[in-house]
Q: What sequence folds into this?
């Protein structure tokens, strides 16, 4: 009986995620307006003068997200000045994961020295993008009137050890855009914790 209940729960969870809008490379990126840890509201349109935006759905509590925090800071240092700034968005419901509350976001960003906006997704924006994990990356390209999705997935091929990375998926995608070349891998599998939310 317990196995049946567990299987039903897993199937329901999978069906819920499959019901999300799943953006594909080339799709128009949905706009947003979310509050950041500085209590300022930020929208995708605020980046209209940038070449693109690195949108990363992440959070405080997930071990995978924690392992990538330093790498995300380095991405902002390298690519932010080149026209590809990082925007981090916390999609988790803090009533389910208290460590992902807005106040904890402020504390975590200060402790880790975040050099990028950290926004609270209180409108379930992650569903429009199709994000299911933390971290889950969307590299957006500025098309003039809107942004399109250029790459979706993981930051690199080793979530555990930054010194043993062989493929830098996100960085390689940005460099391809900069050089006007086709992106070798436009989509990879995001590795991380599932997003915690209530329907």
A:
């Amino acid at each position: 009986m317990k196995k049946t209940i567990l299987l039903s729960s897993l199937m329901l969870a999978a069906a819920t995620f499959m019901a999300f809008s799943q953006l594909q490379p080339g799709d128009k990126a949905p706009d947003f307006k979310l509050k950041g840890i500085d209590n300022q509201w930020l929208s995708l349109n605020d980046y209209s003068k940038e070449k693109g935006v690195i949108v990363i759905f992440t959070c405080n509590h997930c071990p995978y997200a924690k392992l990538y925090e330093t790498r995300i800071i380095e991405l902002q240092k390298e690519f932010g000045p080149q026209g590809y700034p990082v925007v981090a968005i916390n999609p988790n419901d803090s009533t389910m994961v208290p460590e992902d509350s807005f106040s904890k976001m402020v504390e975590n960003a200060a402790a880790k020295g975040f050099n990028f906006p950290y926004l609270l997704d209180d409108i379930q924006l992650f569903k429009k993008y199709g994000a299911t994990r933390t971290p889950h990356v969307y590299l957006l390209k500025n098309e003039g009137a809107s942004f399109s999705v250029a790459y979706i997935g993981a930051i690199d091929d080793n979530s555990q050890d930054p010194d043993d990375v062989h493929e830098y998926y996100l960085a390689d995608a940005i460099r391809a855009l900069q050089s006007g070349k086709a992106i070798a891998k436009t989509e990879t599998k995001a590795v991380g914790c599932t997003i915690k939310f209530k329907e």
Observations:
- The helical segments are 2-18, 63-79, 102-112, 125-129, 169-179.
- Residues 2-18 form the longest helix (17 residues).
